[in-house]
Amino acid sequence: MDRSIDGTERRLRPPSLFLMLAEARGVLELNSSLLLSPLLMQAPKGDGHPVLALPGFLASDLSMAPMRRYLKELGYDAYAWNMGRNFGGISSRRAALRDLLKRVHEASGRKVSIIGWSLGGVYARDLASQMPELVRSIITLGSPFADDIRATNATRLYELLSGEAVDDIPDIRAAIAGDMPVPTTSIYSRTDGIVNWRTSRVRPSESAENIEVHFASHIGLGVNPAALWAIADRLAQPEGEFRHFDRSGPFAIAYGPAEQALS
């Protein structure tokens, strides 16, 4: 068993078959973002700093193209990962991801914000734990890094395709699950049909927060309009500063309540 963020032990289960089948609604979330694009463009504008977008398991850069386009329109320098389809390998991809982060940092001369969707968020947390001096902030979307991370509907397929068993990397898992040395936002949904939402929550603190998006799917979280608004708001914070997300914006009804930082 794994320990939850409050120190208790528990075994979690993957999301139900009903929630997994309901993932098809991700198409509706993309369409909603397209319809609401004029409203989304009212989000705070960017300062031009680099943002690296890391796709989820079995996804490619195409999955995050709408988000990168949105961030570029807001004024960020958005980068794709350019490694093809993500077949996993937290351990085997570490060197390549470090090199990628270095290249993005050197190209801009500025710290890099990293957005990771699902498995991409696990990579983002691993990069931040290894190279915090290059990372401005991290934002994860439905990423399984806490509690019992085997509680997903993709674990067996991940282990088969990556050749890496989740239980074979305890040191990396411990680092990824811990408090990050940079500002951290985890965006998740309790209706995620792939990843048990409890595995996606950080320990709230003065520089770490959770943002729950109601009724979002796993495959639609990166194109969900409420999630995109939250991402834009988080990226707009000045470097070296952190304030918790203000849920009073135009998508206020879509968010769960704010959590208090743990002492």
Automatic annotation (TrEMBL):
Residues 50-145 form the AB hydrolase-1 domain. PANTHER family: SLL1969 PROTEIN (PTHR37946:SF1). This is AB hydrolase-1 domain-containing protein. InterPro entries: AB_hydrolase_1, AB_hydrolase_fold. It comes from the Bacteria. Coiled coil: none annotated.
